[in-house]
Amino acid sequence: MRRPATRTRRWFRRIAGWLLGSFFVVVIGAVVAFFVGYARTGVPDANEKFEANTTVVTYADGKTQVGSFFQQNRKSVPLAQIPKHVQDAVIAAEDRSFWTNPGVSFPGMGRAAFAIARGKQLQGGSTITQQYVKVMYLNQERTMSRKLDELFIATKISRTRDKEWVLGNYLNTIYFGEGAYGVRAAGQVYFGVDHPKDLTVPQAAYLATVLNNPTRFDSDDPAAAERILGRYQYVVNGMAEMGTITPAQSAQYRKALPVLHKKPKSNRYAGPSGFLLEMTRRELAKYGFEGDRLSGGGLRVVTTFDHQLQAKAVAAVRDVPIRGLQIGLASVRPATGEVAAVVGGADFLKSQLNWATTKAPPGALLRPFAIPAGLADRSGAFEVPSSEGSLNRAFFQLVDSKRGPLIAAAAEAAGIPRIPPTDRQAPGLGPDALASPLDLASAYGVFAADGRKVTPHVIKEVRDAHGKLLWSAATQKGLEPAQVYPAAAAILTAKLVGGSKATTVNGLSIEKRKANLKCRCRANKGLQPLASWHVGYSSDLSTAIVYRAGKQGESALPLDNTKEGPTLTWFRYLGGLAVPALR
Asked: What residues does the Glycosyl transferase family domain cover (predicted)?
């Protein structure tokens, strides 16, 4: 009667023994592999000159250069001349166990291995020693083999060099953004402070903040403001925990960031091409190409920008006779999502506000999205438009029956940014800024592509200095075409819109609203032209052009010649095509 139980116990013992034996084999194998790798990996000669390699950015032809990402500004200073609060700020930000750890972070290595196993890019989490090794001894590839080399070399350096040597070299070689390598150059670039000994505690904490990820914590990016403050407060808190500053000082410094006195950007950003470089830089950062990997990695970046179209677009905007306007232009290839041309402004060095990617009131340009919205709706009657003039009727048919949110959803499906609740009942009827030229060029391209949407992007491929392919849009997840409308709905919409649409959006300018609040009167209620648009598209190219006024778009447009202006600019840009009637 007990034989089955006895057999079961035997099987459990065998399985437990097999699992335990396997576990010890894996552990012993890992230990042996570590020591073999450790013994075979030597510490290469450090690059004493520490010369970064230029990253070159080209147009879509792969030959004509847009610009480059390289500006090595490095000035060394002995660790003894770097104040303790500057040292502690970096330690608080990057490696709080620096003085006691063995030079490597095994949890960080575990996370890296897990990321590799999932097919994702390696993340941060390295110790200061590992970061220094990566910069001075290794290339910028993010692979497991490079991570293992980093582990072995960091371990050897920790056994042969003291912590002061590591920290001093790290502070003189790490990348802080803005072309600054090392803490002295960073102080000069961000605050105009010549020597680290003159940096205040808040300034040191700020430098330690951007050091973590100069692209993510870029002060030129308005969207990064909250991230920068949060990271800065984390560093200040760490300095208080380390005893570098008192709790009272921490509470004081946490309130606000120190005032920046940044050096002007390099002349390589001058002119309209500076906007192309900045768009490229931001997109590269999304895929892990940032910091010293970008500025000194010797990459070869091929963009989607068409050199001839870009030259024509710049010339068309430059030839606009009306002075004082802000003009944004964006062209997208509907079938691929490739951004072919962008005019964000006259000179990036004078203003970094990109008018091609800045939202403006779209007005009637959102009305065509009522067609795919109405055709897909089964909750109520929808009279299918039969002519170009019935577009407005289709739009108001949905709005009047409280189905405006369907229009908003259809526009968002095509690539228009999320429309806020206050505008969803009647998208585009108000003066709110809802879409940029790039958004609208991409969204109208969906009509030309039979209902297929491809996320707009500006990079084709990235290769290293030896020509090895590191990234390609052709294989990047998320850049493949997606069917967002039935083909019949998109074709009908394209037919009714007729290949182009122009509109002028009226309302109260910000200037007038401020004036009304100041005088508390109702005299200035007359509507003014806030934005003038033209969108033209075909299966090959979709283009949106907007005219704005004021440094931030806060002013009303001049009354003369601005209604037709974007259409004329579009015709000058793509000359030879018939100028459509204004609608």
From this structure: 66-239
